[in-house]
Amino acid sequence: MDSQTYDEDTLTGPFIGFVVGTVLFGLTILQASQYYFQFPKDSLFCKLKVGTVCALDVSHFVFSVSLFHANFISTRWRASGSGVLVKNDWSLKALSMTQTLLIVLVQIIYLQRIYTLSNIPALNKKTFTRIMNAVICLIGLCAICIGAVFCYKVQNVRVAYTAANSGDQSWVIYLGFGAAACLDAIIAALTCFVLHKNRRDIGLGYISRRSNRLLLSLFRYSLATGILTTLAATLVIVLYLERPTTTDYLSVTFITTRLYTNSVLSFVQNVRRQLNNQDTLGTIGMKAPAEIVFTRRPENYRRRPDIETPLVLITDSDSEFDANSQHLSVYSPYYSPLQARKRQIEELEEIRNNLRSSLSSTLNIWFKGSINRRSSL
């Protein structure tokens, strides 16, 4: 049996990271069970996404236990003067691949949400939608390609180690976690930008309290999760740069996947609660009867600083009926910006349909009617 020379720096970092990761894994199980029990009527596609993320997180936890047991308890982790060697490295390779797949999947889920928010015709023009779609595709391709390169290089490593002379494989860590940090920051910034734009285009004076609460909640969750995952990936690089002969950077990898998984689960549950008109305590919001008609308050009343004016929702049918009865144009302040844009689109479609019908009727008369075609030219 090989002689073992453990020091405190070899065991402390991975042990702390493993304990924290285990606690976060329990939180993952709790949030997953809450999601499936509280929202059984959710779409199958969303359930599959949540289930895939949880399955990858469970696999990552199993490989973490195997790595920790094989290299710290069964004495296969040998510390030497040049670094720390791992003889049985299959668990470390499986751990790295599972973590990469999970990170790429979570990033694609957030990109899909950005795609949904940026492809609302009533709020976004075609030019903006095309630009956002191109940016989303570019970010997704970068995430997939970098993840594939990282997994390929990890699988080709014969003996995983951290040593001062391991510069041949250091760029893999820099590429993988550096790209993850950059992509997380970009995705968080894009999500916040699209949410702010949609909220502004709807109109702060016309948006309902429920919609405003939903958009602000999405904004906060996107910003918080983006900052948290970016800091975690950056911390891995910093620890590897500062202490390359230790395994301190592995302690963060035990926690990183839990952060991604819990961010997705909390994000999905929060959106579902807001859509079901529930607050954080689980109380159901009150709904107004259909006979009540809400109208916009006067500008002088809305600008009074000593009165808190709640945001109310103006339905399309009520506002259009009142505006049409008063013969108002679409640019009247009686319409919200969202309703004005909707009316403009409807008027353009009506004009196009009228032109097509008039052109087709003229051609039918000219070809089928009993007239002198030569004189009509």
Automatic annotation (TrEMBL):
Keywords: Membrane, Transmembrane, Transmembrane helix. InterPro entries: DUF6534 (IPR045339). Pfam families: DUF6534. This is DUF6534 domain-containing protein. Residues 180-267 form the DUF6534 domain. The chain crosses the membrane at residues 12-30, 50-70, 90-111, 131-152, 172-196, 217-241. Signal peptide: none annotated.
